[in-house]
Amino acid sequence: MLGVTDDDDVRAANASFYAAFESGDLDAMAEVWERSDRARVTHPGWPTLHGWARVAGSWQAIFSATPFIQFVLTDEEVLVEGDVAMVTLDENILQSAGSAGGGAEELAGARVATTNVFVRGDGRWRMVNHHGSPVHRDVDPPPVER
Amino acid sequence: MLGVTDDDDVRAANASFYAAFESGDLDAMAEVWERSDRARVTHPGWPTLHGWARVAGSWQAIFSATPFIQFVLTDEEVLVEGDVAMVTLDENILQSAGSAGGGAEELAGARVATTNVFVRGDGRWRMVNHHGSPVHRDVDPPPVER
């Protein structure tokens, strides 16, 4: 593993991703990503989408359907190897659950296990993969083999 | 991206992972992985497990509970950048669904969207992350922004 600086840069890139997500800002989200055919995303319950056009389309759809979302990130672990970085973390999510309309706001919580992958080019880390999967709380932790 | 040889080596490492999974062979599975603190796994619906001891424990639990499993892999896409490789694919799974005992065998199908990450060391690709998430078939493909 490399030095602290790389690690900090990766954490900053990862934080930018969640800032863009929380603000529902498609331009800011586009800045986070490598806008290429290599980009891919798997949202919780969704099939994997390949290429920046489909990735961007998914963000647009999600932002339209999500008036409010807030993340508390836990268990963030960074692995840097050359020009690739992988961040795994838990997204602890609070979001508005009500349908569109004038009804009272309802909030729902969820936990999503996430792998984010970044590639460095021209000194900047850019996201090439975001993979989030729903955590079912009723799954027992498996036995640990030692 | 690098040459064809790297790509082929990564595909071979990825195939070894699924061969070990199908055969339920913990030793073969251990050979596939980087057995270090960096290893991590997110099985469908599970929280992320960190470190080889927990990863190995999860395989032991899964192999014990899975008398039969077969994978048909589709949409396999490989990204190689230096000594890191990422493979995304769909696991189309056929597995025995019956509980233990002498009852008639029942088979169930499922689709899992998967990200596998490998790191090369001493000329060998070793898995550092396997992340699989359930695909809910009733999710509409999102609109594509062009």
- Biggest interface pair, residues each? A-B, 48 and 48 residues
**Based on CA inertia axes, which overall geometry of chain A fits?**
globular
Enumerate how many helices of chain A there are, as a single number: 3
What structural category arises from helix and sheet content of chain A? alpha+beta
Count of DSSP strands of chain A: 6
Q: Name the beta content range of chain A.
A: 35-45%
Strand order of the largest sheet of chain A: 2-1-6-5-4-3
* Biggest sheet statistics of chain A: 6 strands, mixed
Radius of gyration of chain A: 16 Å
- Helix % of chain A is 25-40%
Average of the residue pLDDT scores of chain A: 89
Order of helices and strands of chain A: HHEEHEEEE
The low-confidence parts of chain A are none
- The quaternary organization reads as homodimer
User: What distance lies between the first and last C-alpha atoms of chain A, to the nearest angstrom?
Assistant: 25 Å
